[in-house]
TrEMBL record:
Species name: Panagrellus redivivus (Microworm)
Protein name per Swiss-Prot or TrEMBL: Oligopeptide transporter 1
Major localization listed first in the record, in broad terms: membrane
Alphabetized UniProt keyword annotations: Membrane, Peptide transport, Protein transport, Transmembrane, Transmembrane helix, Transport
Protein family (similarity comment): Belongs to the major facilitator superfamily. Proton-dependent oligopeptide transporter (POT/PTR) (TC 2.A.17) family.
Gene3D superfamilies for the chain: MFS general substrate transporter like domains (1.20.1250.20)
């Protein structure tokens, strides 16, 4: 969850110390406490609140896109991962502005305000219902603003914290970054657990509470800004320095311009030196004075640093594929979780968006386990190098998606089977009750089905049974025979003819009054709190063409018998209303004629499919419009309801049902057709894939960041960090492109393809590691004087346990053979 890249830019920014000054570090906890810069507490607190704000909002974002903005699965994936692309691309601009123009402090302060504005916009937009005209434009503006805000902060906060330490405080600096990284994961872990709880509650007359889920992160972002500013008068604020991106760009441009001039060079970047002179170069003159040596040239060193940068960046090429897998946790895997059974015991639910908490928890648990136990044990068998760890991490990430693919295969068995665009599937429902007790024999072309009284026919993927009728789009004609009836219908219809559209599913209802057929919405609920989808059809003798409203009211032991329905408690009141929200909303899809042998015998009022939470429910006829935009929800004493004699216990999740009410007042009968199966795969089956992807993150992400940092020269570390963040943006761009072109209609196939792609890329990465790359560690030690330079203190903290910091460059002699040297 808290990627190491979220630890922002681990660049200390501490000024270089003369080489002959010895390093004096505080030794005891007491000495460190006295010397500790207290302003870093403001920075750590700021980071905790900012990460809580970011991950709290991001955790519920996909569900918000699905349920409030009404985006499809693919569009929600595009929007979610597109937002992530923005969040990890904008740090490049934040770094350029902070390092080259206004400094870190001003950058953090200004973009924190921008960040908070974005969170506030999103929270305010979420207070409006899904039909509001402000959607999705205000939401998009808010998300884009947040993306630029977090991008501006990301490369600055950690390095600004490092700026507060004095030369010689490397141990304290290492401890600071440990606390800093812990604050990132603590903020993300807590927010990913409680934000789904906030959004699952009812508030502001809505069944969910996204205003709270987004509002609390907005408040935390304001708090984060205030905490940061609390130390403003005590911070050390180094002035902006030369922009490293600009320097590298000028070197590239000069090298390409000079290519072919002068003597042949070993590397194309060295052609920059053809036209370079030190006389007018301030940095060269400064280095000559510092070294007291007129032969040295800063640009020669800088060219070597850029060459080290390019070596590392080439090894970055396979990294985006890892992020293309990892970052599907918040989009594709979340959508998979919505399609699973969220019950873990009794009525206790593990909400789909809460599964992301497991990643943050496992990260905090696994880091010490790997460092203290796993790495030492494996190190006794083989030589552990960073690239070997990364290759293992890539293979394990592929394994996570293989597991995800097999889980999705089981989930697919509970999803609707959609017909081809030129065909339709037709389910049939027999509503002959005990009075008639008729069995139906139905024929469509060469397809024959038999239905017992009260029975429905639907496909059974678990048993691989195809039971629904299939027809080409256009006119369909069913032959109906009534068998073994206790009482014959008055005017039995022997042939029912209607029209179907391609790519759709229909429900044909046959009963004592005749037959009718309506289109089914096969989409499962996406609210993420265990709902099923329910449509209600009213076909009763004593109400004619029913044009009023319906409502499901939750029944508990405390239900008021005189006033059982309370519209002011949204989680206990689900309604189907005619023309509400200023006439823009309608919950009834059609009024259909019921056809018997003499023509139209009556009418059936058919509602749209709407989500219904688990629980015990009674269905009522509702006379008033109880809820609508622009009015306060009526109280339980202001509405008048009539019981339909329908009691329904909704104990399962995710199914799509059609409920039919027939008969007369006092003898109403109801029938339920489960058109799409309930979710039967437990959400706990996602735990293995989350466990595996977290192991992969430890091996690939954390090790990769350490590798990149330790292998880049001190002057290139800020740029390497920016490029590392950019690999996340590129990885999420891959997700966006695949979703935009809708390449895979089956999520299981997509998971296996991603796993295969990861394996191919990691094989290439392994070959590059063996035949291309040679380790060269930069540990913050000056080559000439063998003295530690504080400008690279964080690099020392990261690699001090892996290499001997008594030498400037690792010469690979510790490895036993050529394979170990390169891989």
């Amino acid at each position: 969850m808290g990627k190491l890249s979220d630890a922002d830019s681990f660049e200390s920014g501490i000024q270089r110390r003369p080489a002959n000054v010895p390093v004096k570090q505080p030794e005891t906890w007491g000495e460190m406490f006295k010397a500790w810069p207290k302003t870093t507490l403001c920075i750590v607190s700021n980071e905790f609140c900012e990460r809580f704000s970011y991950y709290g909002m991001r955790t519920v974002l996909t569900l918000y896109l699905l349920n409030v903005l009404k985006f499809s699965d693919s569009v929600s994936t595009i929007a979610f991962n597109g937002f992530t692309v923005l969040c990890y691309f904008t740090p490049l601009f934040g770094s350029i502005v902070a390092d080259g123009y206004v400094g870190k402090f001003k950058t953090i302060f200004v973009v924190s305000i921008v960040y908070a504005i974005g969170q506030i916009l999103l929270a305010l937009a979420s207070t409006q219902n899904s039909e509001s005209s402000i959607h999705p434009w205000v939401d998009i503006v808010g998300l884009v603003t947040i993306g630029f805000g977090t991008g501006g902060i990301k490369p600055c906060v950690a390095s600004f914290g490092g700026d507060q330490f004095e030369p010689g405080q490397e141990r304290m600096l290492s401890l600071f970054f440990s606390v800093f990284y812990f604050s990132i994961n603590a903020g993300s872990m807590i927010s990913t657990f409680i934000s789904p709880i906030f959004r699952s509650k009812s508030c502001l007359g809505q069944d969910s509470c996204y205003p709270m889920a987004f509002g609390i992160p907005a408040v935390l972002m304001i708090v984060a800004t205030m905490l940061f500013m609390a130390g403003s008068f005590s911070y050390k604020k180094p002035p902006p320095k030369d922009n490293i991106y600009g320097e590298v760009w000028r070197l590239f441009k000069g090298a390409l311009k000079n290519r072919g001039k002068g003597p042949k060079r070993d590397h194309w970047c060295e052609y920059y030196l053809v036209t370079h002179t030190c006389d007018n170069d301030e940095k060269c003159q400064e280095l000559k004075r510092e070294k007291n040596d007129q032969s040295v040239c800063q640009k020669v060193n800088f060219v070597d640093d850029v060459k080290s940068l390019l070596r590392v960046l080439i090894m970055f090429l396979p990294v985006p594929i890892f992020w293309a897998l990892y970052d599907q946790q918040g989009s594709v895997w979340l959508i998979q979780a919505i399609q699973m059974d969220c019950r873990i015991w009794g009525n206790t639910l593990l909400l789909p968006d809460q599964t992301q908490t497991l990643n943050a928890v496992l990260i905090l648990v696994f880091i010490p386990i790997f460092q203290v136990i796993i790495y030492p044990i494996i190190g006794k068998i083989i030589t552990l190098t960073p690239l070997r760890k990364m290759v293992a991490g890539g293979v394990i990430a592929a394994g996570a998606f293989v597991v995800s693919g097999f889980v999705q295969i089981q989930v697919n068995k509970t999803l609707a089977t959609l017909p081809p665009d030129s065909s339709a599937y037709i389910s049939v429902m027999n509503t002959f009750g005990p009075e008639y007790n008729c069995t139906l024999n139905i024929t469509l072309g060469d397809q024959h089905r038999s239905l017992l009284p009260g029975e429905s026919i639907n496909d059974n993927k678990h048993l691989q049974q195809k039971l629904t009728f299939e027809s080409k789009e256009g006119s369909v004609s069913f032959a109906i025979k009534y068998v073994n009836c206790a009482k014959n219908p008055a005017n039995p219809l022997l042939t029912y003819t209607d029209t179907v559209s391609g790519g759709d599913i229909f429900n044909l209802v046959i009963g004592p009054k005749g037959s009718y057929m309506f289109k089914v919405d096969p989409d499962k609920p996406t609210e993420g709190t265990g709902e099923s989808s329910m449509s209600v059809t009213v076909q009763v003798d004593d109400r004619g063409n029913y044009t009023k409203n319906l409502c499901f009211c939750r029944i508990t032991k405390d239900t008021d018998k005189d006033h059982p329905c309370n519209p002011q408690v949204p989680s206990d009141f689900y309604y189907y209303e005619q023309k509400y929200n200023d006439g823009k909303k309608e919950d009834f899809q059609s009024l259909l004629p019921v056809i018997d042998s003499k023509g139209i015998s009556s009418f059936a009022t058919i509602s749209k499919f709407k989500p219904l939470k688990p629980g015990d429910w009674n269905l009522y006829f509702l006379n008033e419009t109880a809820k609508s935009v622009g009015m306060k929800s009526l109280s339980k004493t202001q509405i008048h309801v009539e019981y339909t004699n329908v009691k329904f216990s909704n104990t399962k999740q995710g199914g799509v049902r059609s409920l039919i009410i027939t008969g007369k007042n006092g003898t109403y009968e109801h029938y339920i057709n489960v058109l799409v199966p309930d979710n039967t795969v437990s959400i706990l089956w996602q735990v293995p894939q989350i466990f595996i992807i977290t192991v992969a993150e430890i091996l690939f992400s954390i090790t990769g960041y350490e590798f990149a940092y330790s292998q880049s020269a001190p002057s290139m570390k800020a740029m390497v960090q920016g490029m590392w963040l950019l690999t996340t943006a590129v990885g999420d761009t891959i997700i966006v492109i695949i979703a935009a072109f809708n390449i895979f209609s089956n999520p299981a196939v997509a998971a296996f393809v991603y796993a295969g792609l990861m394996m191919v890329v990691i094989l290439i990465f392994a070959l590059m590691s063996i035949f291309y790359y040679e380790y060269k560690y930069y540990t913050g030690v000056d080559d000439d004087d063998n003295v530690l330079i504080e400008d690279d203190a964080i690099s020392t903290a990261l690699v001090k346990d892996a290499v001997d910091i008594g030498t400037a460059h690792h010469n690979n002699k510790a490895y036993e053979d050529e394979w170990d040297t390169r891989f």
